[in-house]
Amino acid sequence: MLADSPSSLGDSLPAPGSGKGLRFLLKQTFHYEYTGAVQALRQRLIAIPPEQHGDQQRIFYQVSLSAQGVAPEWSEDPFGNLLATIAIPTVARSVSFSVEAVVERDHLWSEAVLPKPATERAVYLPPTKLTAADGRLMNFAHRVRNGAANEVEAAERICEEVHRAVPYQKGVTGVATTAMEAFELGAGVCQDHAHIMLAMCRAVGISARYISGHLLGEGATHAWVEVLAASAEDGEATRAFAFDPCYGRKPDARYVTIAVGRDYSDVSPTSGTYIGSAQNRLSASAHLRVEPRGL
User: Fold this and answer.
1) Of 11, 30, 114, 210, which is least surrounded by CB within 10 A?
2) DSSP for the chain?
3) Residues 39-85: tens digit of each pLDDT
């Protein structure tokens, strides 16, 4: 599930500095249709916002299933994401999963700066299959990085250059498209922009992670990047700075974080296995609504 075309919603939000927080209501559905009966379905959902992410705080969540007598098992994955695992013995033709969540943000136009232990940087520094850089992409990353005063300034430059170099275009890439493939193609969607930025950051020694979430006004999941760098105030601490290369900007109050990982494969909203020869088709929808607080 990839984001729709870029949109502008700045006029619909309270003015920056107004001191009015926002409350988001998220509803998301995943519906699977099968060509025949399947057995031992084991589904994984990563669709619930974290309890706390910067100024974002989770107030409520629930997952509803169309299958009777089945409840999710909750756990935490290696990246700290809330994971729902659902086991269904038999599915005749279809199954649906519905997610509801409420989160609040206390500040508008947040720079999404998060205190994190320095040891976490190492997890997000090595390239992955989706974020490996070839010679052309690596050279591009070093040219962009050259002259930047620090990692955050370098990341900001990379964000801007990825936005310029790779125009948004739906239907030309998929969830398995690598950063190198999308860069060579010169087109893609938010997931591709995030993978290219991750590849470039990691190529020049900047630790960065993939963020899956939602952006107000888009009817699907969105993707952006957080760079983990030393804090200017405390060199011993690590802070996370968010960038959205799809739009060429820093995320603001319109963004709701769901999960973090090394790339898309770590945070795919829905995935699973089953026994049987039937084929499946997934349809999904997402609706994010916002209500001003502090009026």
Assistant:
1) 11
2) ----S----GGGSPPTTS---EEEEEEEEEEEEESS-EEEEEEEE--SPPSEETTEEEEEEEEEESSTT--PEEEE-TTS-EEEEEEEEEESSEEEEEEEEEEEESSTT----EEE-GGGGGGGSS--TTT---HHHHHHHHHHHTT-SSHHHHHHHHHHHHHHHS-B-TTS--TT--HHHHHHHT-B-HHHHHHHHHHHHHHTT-EEEEEEEEETT-SS-EEEEEEEEE-SS-TTSEEEEEEBTTTTB---TTEEEEEEESSHHHH-SEEEEEESS--EEEEEEEEEEEEE---
3) 999 999 999 999 999 889 999 999 999 998 999 999 999 999 999 99
Structurally, at CATH architecture level, domain 114-267 sits in Roll (3.10)
Q: Where are the domains of the chain?
A: 10-106+276-292, 114-267
Domain 10-106+276-292: which CATH class? mainly beta
Q: What is the pTM of this model?
A: 0.89
